[in-house]
Amino acid sequence: MSISDNLQGILKNVLPGVKLVAISKTNPVENILQAYNVGQMAFGENKVQELVPKYQLLPKDIEWHMVGHLQTNKIKYIAPFVHWIHSIDSLMLLQEVNKQAYKYNRSINCLLQVHIAAEESKFGLNDEELIDLVRSPILKDLTNIQLKGLMGMATFTENELQIRNEFHKLSELLFKVQTIAGNNLPEFKELSMGMSSDYLIAIEEGSTLIRIGSKIFGERHY
Ligand SMILES: *Cc1c(COP(=O)(O)O)cnc(C)c1O
Fold this sequence. Notes:
Elements: H1 3-11, E1 19-23, H2 29-37, E2 42-45, H3 48-57, E3 63-66, H4 75-78, E4 84-88, H5 91-103, E5 108-114, H6 127-135, E6 145-152, H7 160-181, E7 190-192, H8 199-204, E8 209-212, H9 214-217
Parallel strand pairs: 1-2, 1-8, 2-3, 3-4, 4-5, 5-6, 6-7
The site of pyridoxal-5'-phosphate has 12 residues, from strand 8 and helix 9.
């Protein structure tokens, strides 16, 4: 199967209104170009040091998504070009993204990462931290970010019911934030959830952004 076949296979399962973000981490630029050449425009990476050189080498109309854990001191390297950051897990990080985006006169779409998995290791806000963040009066001063919604990763398990419940929880949290924030966060409607193994469940539970790597590019090239 080629990258193009893999993309087509996924896209035929995807509802209109769901965006496919091709997660290209560990893949060489040639593989990314193969996907780009058949129309894939949105790509995601999880490390700043991999995202920056790929941005430099690849066509400038690619829409870049940062999906991995982000350190405050590295935001400056991606702020000139990144379109979406999926992994915001503190107000401080959001303030720094805003500051850097302001320098470049840009607006960056941001998603708040919520910890929905049973595993300890995954990053993200808990429910209480999420609610505190969206209630913060500071948000209205952040003119160079758009708070677009939530991101989450389900537990790595074969148990589909558990995965579904975790995605369902994220979608309920989106609704809860919408209710709390009301007109203060008019753009807060995106749900970034679903990877190669669980994207069909994620779409059924309301995902609007699926992040798929290995199902497009094959096993990763470490
Ligand atoms: C690697 C990665 C993905 C894609 O994972 P696959 O299982 O290869 O589809 C999605 N989201 C994040 C945050 C990732 O790091």
